[in-house]
Design a protein that fits this description.
With 171 residues, this protein is an alpha+beta fold. The chain has helices spanning 2-10, 38-46, 79-87, 104-108, 137-144, and strands spanning 14-19, 27-31, 34-37, 51-58, 69-76. The longest helix has 9 residues, at 2-10. The mean pLDDT is 89.
Amino acid sequence: MPAMDVAVALKPRWVLLENVPGMEKTEIRTTEHRSENIIAYIKRRLGPEYVGGAEVIACEDVGVPQRRKRLLTIFTRDPAGQSFYEHNDGSFFSSEMREPRKTLRDAIGSLPPLEATQGKNEARWFHPYHYVPMMTDLKYHWVKHTKEGNTAFNNQCINSACNSNSNPGHK
């Protein structure tokens, strides 16, 4: 695992890896005839000077307006970090860190509105990075008809003339 080769060589104070929750149960081949749980492998490669582990977090519990769980694997050789981890029941995330859940509207609702069409796709007067790329007319039409709280995948079909009985958007 190249990332571990780098971490072992550089010996950073903190090592942070992010991935899908299922990675916690992943077995990797460490030799031709041996496999090992990836978290155990990381811990073994870093050695006893590092303290930490892997924890699945819900992004929405730490202030990110997104319903997504992630596996954060964190190890440290920093004394203050090790102390925090050990006094927090083996976690880098204390209950005091949890934040009230935010919606995307809570997070960015006060920003100037943008649309992915010519002349409405940027507000650089507000911030140089406040812009969106322009979309083709068809893609813009598809996204424009996505109900708040849904994704464009839920649209099924926005063409009412297609008359598909299996399309929930036509009922």
